[in-house]
Write a structure and sequence with these properties.
There is one protein chain. This protein is an alpha/beta fold. It contains 9 helices and 14 strands. The protein has 2 domains: 56 residues; 178 residues, von Willebrand factor, type A domain (Rossmann fold). The longest helix is centred in the N-terminal third of the chain and has 36 residues.
């Protein structure tokens, strides 16, 4: 870790008297909310037994499930002024607000295992060197990825197909080797299938990696639906638009570039437009980026349906440090 990164984790200055009062009030409020939560648990158990004379042995499990569903998780990448990832920060180094309201972190994980969904274009335009370079790059990605990750493969041509779900790296590789490019490009449908599948997977670190060489030609849904669902699912999306090796051939028009840029930037991911020969290097960058994410979890104070805005800062600000994450999400 760089000297600048190490400076971020230093001791916190003494707070002023006003800050002490604010911290005390915040502690009292959090204690009151926690006590109310326990009271609600007790009331629910008492009602179930008092009214129906039924001992609900799964009462605790339902509480845990409800808490898990209400927890908001945001994945954050932190880099210095030279773009180098800073991997050694702690929970106390982050400050998070939800719609302007400070929230307490209930969950923190650094460099934990990830659920990664690959959404791979297998239309006829992917034949030849594009497919060979893509499969070689993905093979290296799977060989270098940390243990504990699980992988899902969605392949698309005329329509999307869920080829493998939450499997080990070697199993995903075997599934990928059996694919052969042909057909059209149902890109939008494939991204939606990938997002819906990713939401059901186990890890808090979640990423979708889209690899395609052209615009959508065969989907049933439109661009606006894809844009909204990407924000609603709170997953980091990495988009790779594979360019033709012939510079005179244009792979992407304005709509295609807009989709790939928006999916990545609004979800805290990265967008790349490599040639097929550059795919290996791009996938190495994505692998490092996913592996160095911080996962922050909290309960929003306002749980009503609607859009929310997240802001993540470092407790001790430092110049030339960049935080990349999804800044808006949707409560349904």
């Amino acid at each position: 870790m760089s000297a600048r990164g190490a400076h971020l984790v230093g001791s916190v200055p003494l707070a002023s008297s006003a800050e002490d009062v604010a911290n005390l009030l915040d502690t009292l409020l959090q204690g009151t909310l926690l006590g109310g939560r326990y009271a609600l648990m007790a009331i629910g158990l008492s009602l179930a037994f008092g009214v129906m004379r039924l001992v609900n042995v799964a009462h605790g499990d339902f509480i845990v499930l409800a808490a898990y569903l209400a927890l908001v998780t945001v994945n954050v990448n932190v880099s210095d002024g030279k773009g180098r990832l800073l991997p050694s920060l702690k929970a106390q180094d982050f400050k998070v607000t939800d719609d302007g309201q400070p929230v307490a972190l209930e969950f923190f994980q650094s460099q934990g295992p990830a659920s990664i969904v690959f959404v791979v274009d297998i239309s006829s335009s992917m034949q030849g060197s594009k497919w060979r370079n893509l499969t070689a790059g993905l093979k290296e990605f799977l060989e270098r990825a940390p243990e504990g990750n699980d992988y899902t493969l969605v392949a698309f041509s005329d329509s999307p197909q869920l080829i493998a779900r939450s499997v080990r790296a070697d199993e995903l590789w075997r599934s990928l080797k059996g694919l052969h490019p042909s057909g059209h490009t149902a890109l939008y449908d494939a991204v939606l299938l990938g997002l819906n599948t990713l939401e059901e997977l186990a890890q808090r670190h979640k990423a979708l990696v889209l690899l395609s060489d052209g615009e959508d030609t065969n989907s049933r849904v439109g661009l606006p639906a894809v844009q909204q669902e990407a924000l609603a699912h709170r997953a980091t999306v990495y988009t790779v638009g594979i360019l033709s090796d012939n510079p005179r051939l244009l792979s992407y028009g304005p709509n295609g570039q807009q989709l790939l840029n928006e999916l990545a930037t609004t979800t805290g991911g990265l967008v790349h437009f490599p040639t097929s020969g550059e795919l290996g290097e791009v996938l190495r960058k994505i692998n490092a980026d996913v592996s160095n994410q911080y996962s922050l979890g909290y309960y929003p104070l306002d749980k009503r349906p609607g859009w929310r805005r997240i802001q993540v800062n470092l407790a001790q600000d430092s110049h030339h440090v960049k935080l990349r994450y999804q800044q808006r999400y949707l409560i349904r």
